Amino acid sequence: MGRKFFVGGNWKCNGTTEEVKKIVSMLNDAQVPSGDVVDVVVSPPFVFLPLVQSSLRSDFHVAAQNCWVRKGGAFTGEVSAEMLVNLGIPWVIIGHSERRSLLNESSEFIGDKVAYALSQGLKVIACVGETLEQRESGSTLEVVSAQTKAIADKIPSWDNVVLAYEPVWAIGTGKVATPAQAQEVHAELRKWLHNNVSAEVAGSVRIIYGGSVNGANCKELAGQPDLDGFLVGGASLKPEFVDIIKSAM
Ligand SMILES: O=C(CO)COP(=O)(O)O
Questions:
Q1: I need a surface site. Which of 19, 22, 110, 174 has the fewest CB within 10 A?
Q2: 96 part of the active site
Q3: Fold category of 5-246 in CATH
């Protein structure tokens, strides 16, 4: 189906200038598959975006970790989509579970954010995923479908969206989803897109997996037919991120 592999590195709220420079130089020196084979996008905290943007190799790209839901203005502490565009930042992560749970971002609010970011010309990594409690009660598919619907309802096109399935119980826990668990949800999300958006979108949207991905488990996950890449947290700060990029091949 020709979906290009996508590897995102979400640095979360980590790093000093020195550490950021080290990671960038590690990435710049890495031998990885060409940009025809894999999209690599790293997401530093806002304050480091200009540094990373200006020093990172040109075949890798940067993403912000969030942006404001509408046009900028009197919203203390927020960063607008327009500002990201002004800085030449091509991507933004929206709806990460840490923001959903710790900052009470609702699915509707996230749908609005994705729509606004797209309207300004940003590309979006939109995150969905169930909690452990939801998985154990058997509502995984219902939860991720509802989160996806809240986005689908607000956007005119999926062309510039990558959907990230990140089960909350797998994030930062070392408890990675099995390849079969990830494949099951990815296939269901694709089916949901097929039935509710279009066959074309279902076939073309990249659905990436996040949650305790590392250099050792990436290869088997990458072999799943509906898994088109990764959103990596902890391991994206380490040299093994390069091994994860290489799992594209
Ligand atoms: O939340 C994540 C990426 O957005 C995943 O984090 P970890 O890879 O640290 O589990």
A1: 174
A2: yes
A3: TIM Barrel (3.20.20)
